[in-house]
Amino acid sequence: MKIILIRHAQTPGNLEKRYIGKTDEPLSEYGKQELSLRTYPECEAVFVSPMRRCIQTADIIYPQTPHIICTQLRECDFGDFEQKNHKELSESPSYQAWLQSGGTAPFPNGENPASFKVRCTKAFASVIAANSEKSCIAFVVHGGTIMSVMEAYARPKLGYFDYMVPNCRGYLTEFNGEFLTVTEKL
User: Fold this and answer.
1) Exposed/middle/buried for 103, CB within 10 Å: 0-12, 13-18, 19+?
2) Is 67 helix (H, G, I), strand (E, B) or coil?
3) How far apart are CA 54 and CA 56, in angstroms?
4) Region label for 168, one of left (φ > 0), alpha (ψ between -120 and 50) or beta (otherwise)
5) In whole angstroms, what is the distance from residue 81 CA to residue 74 CA?
């Protein structure tokens, strides 16, 4: 099965390098324009985070393909860091502690990164199991969601942050029932 993983297009918060998790931002005009300049592989079904930025991206890329909302594919809840950027957080002791943890400590008043990864990989596995008869499906989701799935399933095995992708980008992969192999970076 071919699996396409695409990160949503740019939002105003992405432009300002803010932590945008549970905030339901729309796409920026730049994000919409960037999508219009790109092409993506065709697929039989599109699985989408419930966040507006992902739905809008999927609507632009795959207007004729059925979209299935998958709540568990939403981005991480960044808690107290939500809607803030590195500069705004740089003096925060809790942010410094989180950075020193290598991004593994729970977000204050937010989600635990380990739990987030489990949520995303379970949702991915569930979608794959329920769609095994299809030859190609796409996921239009968040950077963190893609990083979680790739860390768990991609071979060769790399770390979470090794799979960071810019907006509108992602991976075309092949799934052999056990792991993903990247055939093209989008």
Assistant:
1) exposed
2) strand
3) 5
4) left
5) 17
Residues 89-122: tens digit of each pLDDT = 999 999 999 999 999 999 999 999 999 999 999 9
How far is C-alpha 97 from the chain's CA centre? 24
Q: Is the peptide bond before 12 cis (omega within 30 degrees of 0)?
A: no
The H-or-E segment that residue 136 falls in is strand 136-141
User: Are 76 and 113 a contacting pair, CB within 8 Å?
Assistant: yes
pTM, 2 dp: 0.95
Residue 83 pLDDT grade (very low, low, confident, very high; cuts 50, 70, 90): very high
**128-178 confidence digits (pLDDT tens):** 999 999 999 999 999 999 999 999 999 999 999 999 999 999 999 999 999
Rounded average pLDDT over 63-90: 96
Backbone angles phi, psi at 36, to 5 degrees: -65, -20
